[in-house]
Design a protein that fits this description.
Layout: H1 7-17, H2 25-29, H3 32-52, H4 55-78, H5 84-98, H6 100-103, H7 111-131, H8 150-162, H9 171-190, H10 194-214, H11 219-243, H12 248-251, H13 253-268
Helix pairs in contact: 1-4, 3-4, 8-10, 9-10, 11-13
Length: about 270
């Protein structure tokens, strides 16, 4: 078996790994549920390579991600559910259907028009899915995946609700809601009610994700940037403490805060 640029070779390798006669014992033990976390992890690793602008790593991570649908499709084929051809047909059919301005007679003169057409077709698809379910079981929120990162899911849930005008008029009212939720966190903390604090913190984070949407910001990306900024600045604090020959544990908050302010002010200017 030799490496190849063709998808068919990847399919052959995956089939060999899952072959009960001589296949890989670990691969043979897996099922849809057991590898689902790997599927999610690989998507995050792709995003991480993109953020780092490491395109050699991106090539490798995209390969790892490509393996995941091939793996799932192989297991599905073994059970007579579907195969990789069905998967490819489904996505090509969907892309054609959602781009009538490219593959049909309708026109979309700009990216905004194309996005609006995409959203319109998706709304029609959701309506058709809902029509196939009992009325009491159908919800506008049904296809917002539970496995999304919580902050991303919060933004998508609020966006979906906003599509039927269940939304604050503008970002100012949403900001007021954030402040209201922050006050409720403080009240719960003052009362030392841990369960209530958790509930109110959840409401605060949901409101913050909603505010991000209103301002045209992806909350998950904003938090990633904040994490990166904190990491960068804290490493500077560590370096400064090392230069001053003092351990972090013994430096004291005042000195550490001084180091932090140094890098913060430097970055701002």
């Amino acid at each position: 078996m030799e490496p190849s640029r063709d998808l068919s070779r990847l399919l052959e390798i995956m089939a060999a790994l899952r072959n009960p006669d001589g296949g890989c014992p670990w691969d043979l033990e897996q099922d849809f549920a057991s590898i689902s976390n790997y599927t999610i992890e690989e998507a995050y690793e792709v995003a991480d390579a993109i953020e780092r602008k490491d395109f050699s790593d991106l090539r490798e991570e995209l390969g790892d991600l490509l393996l995941q649908p091939v793996y799932h499709a192989q297991m599905a084929s073994e059970q007579g559910l579907f195969d990789i051809g069905d998967v490819i047909y489904a996505i090509t059919e969907k892309l054609i259907r959602r781009h009538p301005h490219v593959f049909g007679e309708e026109a979309a003169r700009n990216a905004g028009g194309a996005k609006a057409k995409w959203d319109e077709v998706k709304a029609e698809e959701r309506a058709k899915k809902a029509a196939r379910k009992p009325a009491e079981a159908s919800s506008l929120l049904d296809d917002v995946p539970n496995v999304l990162p919580a902050l991303t899911r919060a933004e998508k849930l609020s966006r979906r609700a906003a599509s039927v005008q269940f939304d604050w008029p503008d970002w100012r009212e949403t900001l007021a809601k954030v402040r209201e939720e922050l006050d409720e966190v403080a009240d719960a903390a003052e009362a030392n009610e841990k369960a209530k604090v958790q509930e109110e913190l959840g409401d605060l984070l949901f409101a913050a994700a909603n505010l991000a949407r209103k301002l045209g910001i992806e909350p998950e990306a904003a938090l990633r940037d904040a994490n990166a900024k904190f990491t960068r600045r804290f490493r500077y604090v560590e370096q400064r403490a090392q230069q001053d020959a003092v351990s972090l544990a013994e430096a004291g908050l005042q000195r550490l805060d001084g180091y932090w302010n140094e890098i913060r002010d430097r970055e701002r200017t």
